[in-house]
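Handout, section B. The chain below has 359 residues.
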Amino acid sequence: MKTVGTDTGYFKTVVKQHKKAIDADITDYVEYLKSSTKEQYGQGSQDAIDAYTDILNRGGKRLRGALVIEGYKMSGGTNQAMIMQAARAIEMIHASMLVIDDVQDNSLLRRGGPTAHVQLESIYKDRHLAETLATNAALLGDHGAMMILANLDASAELRSNVMSIVNRTMVVTIHGQIADPLNQLNENLTEADVAKVQEWKTATYTILNPLHVGMVLAGAGCEVTDGITPFAKNAGQAFQITDDIIGTFGDKQDTGKNSIDDIREGKRTLLTVHALDRAIPADKEFLLKCLGNQQLTAKDFARCQEIIVSTGSLQYTQVKAKKYVETARKSLHDNSSLWSDSGTEFLDGLAQYLLLRIN
């Protein structure tokens, strides 16, 4: 097995290719969605769909869509037009979740621009109405995606299996969404509690679900989908840990969000849970007062960052991410006979890339 952090070239090249193709497909679909919405449902629905599709069009790396395509290809799938539609659907569901997440977190920025509810508030001048419209737009996007999956050019059995996978994933992810804010009320929160939410919200949703969708549409059986599961769950844990590190210590120009947001929202991450457990009493009290403080100042946020570093929590989470990546890569290579060499190389590069994000 190759050394961690040294070979991500193939992954970066292929994911860029997938992003370009997915972006083009989504651009065409958005034009259709906008025109049909205005014609059938009027200006109010048009405004809501515009806000949703703006988030959808911003894209990001399109990792989830890329994993759908790679899961399909590495399991022998060849229907490029069909799997592109499936990738579009998974990206649409992701955009829906982002819109809802931003409403719940009262976030102002997403991917370098205003969130959907902020866009709608600029039109209607009413926060509650804007949040209502944004939530409804997210539901429209989610159900539109499910319609796409229900009508894929695949056998009825495969379509049914994929619909079941996606719906089960959303059930698990929403339970993660419920647990995440409730963790803020748990005075005895443990790392195991954080890891559970990371598995429900990120590992299952971001890595496992799209791979399983692609593999199942290619006709892969349980041995293949079970074989990729340990990789996906461990890589997903690393993904969320590195995302939290970037969220607290990253540059807004790179992340598209304010780094202060996670602390201001009171989000309990491995970073903050470990810091609260290791901090001296005065620093612990300070960090607790800052977590969830909507008026948190830049100066106090900088002090929170210092506490996370001084308690060794930043280094600790970096080490944890590395261990998850190592476990994911071992599982991937142990089961590599179940799928193509190119698929193994792509996923191996993804795992290594996760660590490069924070180094």
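Note. DSSP finds 16 helices and two strands in the chain. Compare this with the example in section A.
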